[in-house]
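Morning!

This is the sequence you dropped in the shared folder:
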Amino acid sequence: MTQLLSVSKAVRLAGVSRRKLQKKIGSGELSTFEGKVRIEDLLRVFPRVDLDADPTLEQIAQIKSKSKPMFDWQQRDPPSAEILLRRLQTLSSLFLQTQRALDQNSELLKLAVNKLDVLSRDGDLGEIAQGKISTLFEQLSRQQSELDAQQDQMLEAQNPADTKQQRHSHNKAVLFTKNLLMHIIAPSVQIIPSGHEFLIEGGDTVLEAATRSGLNVNYGCNDFKCGGCKARLISGQVVETRTPGYKLSAHEKKMGYVLMCCNTAITDLTLEAGEAASPRDLPEQTLETHISGLQQLNEDTVLLHLRSKASDNFRFLAGQKAVLTLADGMSMTRSIISCPCDGQNLYFVAHRGSGDEQTGQFYQGLQLGAKVELVGPKGEFCLQNMSTNPSLFIADDAGFSPVKSLVEHAISIERIKGFELYRQGSKSSPSFYHNLCRSWQDAFENFNYINPQPDVSAQDIAAQIMRDHPDPAKFDVYIAGVRPFADTIKNALLAHGFPAKRLRVEVMEDEIF
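The structure's back. Tokens below.
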């Protein structure tokens, strides 16, 4: 029975980056069937895969641990005993079905061999016919002997003296076993029509796993009452882990709808669900939050952590802004520096400003525990929808917040082929910015960080970009910063031939350092 793997599972089982696997698919080295990869083909393309490595470890875990500290409420709980039992029972049933199919095929092969043996000795047949039947009989007999031998080898430990064919059989068996293990610990989900994939790990619901993976699937609350996260189950099995406050109608149940917020996967799933693809797809929201953390980045800059009530989530796209209003009515518009994977814990950068009385007053009003009203999301500075083009991100200190959000989201969805970040810093820039960018470069082979000398001009940065990329047509470009910086970079790149339709600019009018 041919074993097909989703791309997400193939990446984990092979221990390679998603970009590397997709490059093999794009070149034709690795074939796919309906978007899935055969175990045999995976072993052929990656014959030296380390099958003893932990398949759940990926580079993306490194960057998440470095750039986003995990708080108590963000830790994953392991799957419950009931969920694990259900998954094991499903696998047991699959094993029985597979075994029955193998037994039937084996019996059919033996029957064919016996019939051919009889025909090869039939005196009524001509000499030529007997010769052809004898040849076919010998071929099938050898094939049956090889299959029997392979089954015996798969039950034994791999021996260094094994032949190449024996090692391949052993590796195929190990990979098959690890894939079955992943069915238990991390079932995969495919969303249609977008084709996005993600894994459900720990005790996550489908909705939690989707948002952790950076997908902006539709939902409307965080307390299981609105029904906004309902999706149609195309294939697979789910189990309800939380009691919903919203009741699906009899017609919706008949059509196969489930609530992603209250269900987790028993098997791999295919779901039909809506996703926000552009800012127009998201409603304006008003949330009551409180200041949960204030981290001083330098003398005049603070990292602000807002946390909403447990029943509320703020939906936004990476790169967008929100309006923050303190209890005294003081308001400021700020870019969200965190990625959309956690809508309950939101991060912003706030600074005193330079000669701006309103900015200074807002900064002084930031106190732990203080209430902050959040309205948004605002703005259209987002990733090009569904684009896989290599991307250039260009930011000064004022534009670092939206660019950080875009980069982290690009890392989460693992879709962009490669990206580079050009950052204009100064001697007073928070060291947090530089250290974070260095950690991205250390963790990802397809990320490049260019950090010119402090206080280098926008013209010099534009000149370096044009020297580094004489062929600009293949890039998506994202520029964020104060107006003189953003306009200088944009005009220089357009003159150099960067396509205007793939160039996005965010002018940081309210976020001047």
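Headline: The mean pLDDT is 80.

More detail when I'm at my desk.
O.
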